[in-house]
Design brief:
heterodimer, A: 521 residues, Alpha-Beta Plaits, Rossmann fold, B: 60 residues, alpha+beta, 3 helices
């Protein structure tokens, strides 16, 4: 076995580029293992755990890039070295607008001199440094989109207090999506501009709702992400409150949507009540709380699920009556023929439903809906009515897994960007012939994989062929979040999946109900 | 909220971005005509938590 180590001093590369380089190296035949990371204490521990530590890496510092890989032969080793050299010789991307190569500024202050009038800083450096950069941005009067996670709670509280003091917007930490005045930030979609303003502590939920609003024919004025922890007791909804104040005063916004994942009920209630005597309609979605229906305010409405958030806000924007939410009876009635076709050829070995999600809020939604159909569901992470899955890497019986959780994404690209992990998992799970239906979500838009449909369509077709050969039938239900403006070509992605035999639904909510009906038949 | 609050001003303005970190996050801006500048960021020389805290307090 041959080992190669290189330490590039003072060479910071962002995490996504490192993972892309790691994927390139891992794909070379003969390369057994590799580690590519900045030499921070945490990453050094990871090198140690992987058996890749050596004196060169030990000496390296957090600004130094470490590349280590092990190969079966000198030849494989030299292919690896060639790829690394090719990667670093490639031209650096240019700064936008100027369109020519130049020396990049080394700080927010010098960037501000380079781009006077800059009003927003996007921060995605590792969590332990992100707070410092956010503070620098706010101190210089700039709004912040803080994509980084693992920012300490105490820092989040202090930063949000500073933002409040200065009247600035701090979206995050751990904010993956937003749309500001028509511009998608982070993972987000091309969505029509319109009357509905959204504030969300729930990335994939906001994306799904924005896409549904667009496909239902309305539009979004602003979609403000607050970060997943904003409605925790300690943070007190600081970003939510500032965003509310702004959207209530914003002339373009006529309807507000307030949505989150699990939150502190009192904080959520304070946020909703801060609307005071405003005449603007508010649709609220705080899944683990009970307070909304108790609020006696003619303009405040509680949504039952993600599709209902979109349908309600669209109806209010049009001055129409809010439709009732989707129910299992309604889906059963509307999709009877589909359910019959999907369930008429199961073999006796086929028993289970497997839900494998890339969006955490959609996994949470499935945790609410699927137990209506199936007893004894396992889930990772565990939630409410489901049982905890012991090993997140090993599905069991009826099972829901959020593949965006840290255990899967540490040192790896998020499954919205790299579908490999989910494709491998589906392939492995269908091997024993015990699956009735897979429930999956796909997100299109900026930041997402350029063509998630192709790889998945191939696995779907192979799976269906294998089950048919064994005298059964394998069902796939997929919710496709996106719009016709997204770079991946929504219609083309839908066609690929449907051609392979999947049922592609209009919403994640409908997909969950449908999969429950198919899985429990 | 006063008419010219910083957040309402942001809603009314063209977004102009300073990107600190992952370059892929601003990949789509050129096509959308969004002006941005990439910071050539490096971690601070020290990872000593006390020194990092001191750095934070200097920017208060």
């Amino acid at each position: 076995m041959e080992t190669y180590t290189e330490v590039k001093k003072s060479t910071y590369q962002d995490s996504m580029k490192l993972m892309q380089l790691q994927a390139i190296l891992s794909g070379i035949p003969g390369i057994i293992s590799c580690g590519i990371a900045m030499a921070t204490p945490e990453n050094k521990a990871t090198f140690r755990e992987a058996g890749l530590m050596n004196p060169q890496i030990q000496e390296a510092g957090p600004s130094d890039l470490c590349i280590v890989f092990q190969a079966v032969s000198k030849e494989a080793l030299s292919f690896g070295v060639e790829e690394i050299n090719k990667y670093f010789l490639a031209k650096r991307p240019t700064s936008g607008y100027f369109g020519q190569e130049q020396v990049f500024p080394k700080s927010i202050s010098s960037a501000l001199r380079r781009l006077p009038g800059a009003n927003l800083v996007i921060i995605s450096v590792p969590g332990q440094y992100a707070a410092l950069e956010a503070r620098k941005a706010l101190s210089q009067g700039l709004h912040v989109f803080l994509f980084s996670d693992n920012v300490p709670l105490r820092d989040e509280i202090e930063l949000k207090e500073l933002a409040r003091e200065k009247g600035l917007l701090l979206m995050g930490p751990d904010c993956g999506t937003a749309i500001l005045s028509g511009i998608p930030l982070g993972f987000s979609n091309v969505v029509r501009r319109g009357k509905i303003g959204i504030i969300g502590a729930s990335g994939s939920g906001m994306q799904e709702v924005c896409c549904l609003i667009h496909r239902m024919g309305e539009g979004v004025s602003q979609a403000i992400g607050t970060g997943g922890r904003d409605l925790a007791k300690e943070v007190g909804g600081k970003t939510f409150l500032m965003a509310m104040e702004a959207l209530l005063a914003d002339k373009e916004t006529e309807v507000l949507v307030l949505m989150s994942k699990h939150c502190d009920e009192r904080v959520a209630q304070r946020v909703v009540e801060s609307a005071g005597e405003s005449r603007k309609a508010i649709v609220g979605f705080f899944p683990n709380t009970q307070f909304l229906p108790q609020i006696k305010h003619e303009k405040i409405y509680a949504a039952a699920n993600l599709e209902h958030i979109a349908a309600s806000s669209v109806a209010l924007a049009r001055g129409a009556r809010i439709p009732p939410p989707l129910t299992r009876e309604k889906v059963s009635e509307q999709m009877g023929a589909v359910i019959q076709a999907e369930t008429s050829k199961f073999s006796s070995e086929q028993k289970y439903l497997r839900a494998l999600f890339t969006g955490g809020t959609l996994a949470d939604e499935a945790n609410e809906i699927l137990p209506l159909f199936l007893n004894q569901m396992y889930s990772y992470p565990a939630y409410g009515k489901t049982l905890p899955l012991e090993d997140p890497r090993l599905s069991k019986e009826h099972c829901i897994v959020d593949l965006g959780e840290d255990v899967f994404t540490k040192g790896k690209l998020h499954p919205i960007i790299d579908p490999t992990l989910r494709l491998e998992r589906i392939t492995k799970e269908m091997e024993d012939g015990s699956i009735r239906v897979f429930l999956l979500d796909i997100f299109l838009g900026y930041g997402a994989h350029p063509d998630p449909g192709s790889g998945l369509a191939k696995i779907i077709a192979e799976g269906k062929r294998a089950y048919e050969k064994g005298g059964g039938y394998l069902s796939f239900v997929i919710s496709l979040a996106g719009t016709e403006g997204d770079p991946q070509n929504y219609a083309g992605q839908k066609e690929k999946l449907e051609k392979a035999g999947a049922i592609v639904t209009e919403s994640s909510t409908r997909a969950a109900f449908l999969a429950g009906l198919i899985g429990s038949r | 909220m006063p008419e010219k609050s910083p957040i309402l001003s942001l809603f009314a303005a063209r977004i102009k971005v300073i990107n600190v970190g992952i370059e892929k996050l601003v990949d789509h801006f050129k096509g959308l005509g969004v002006e941005f500048v990439q910071v050539d960021w490096k971690p601070p020389a020290s990872t000593n938590p006390e020194i990092l805290e001191k750095l934070k307090s200097l920017t208060k």
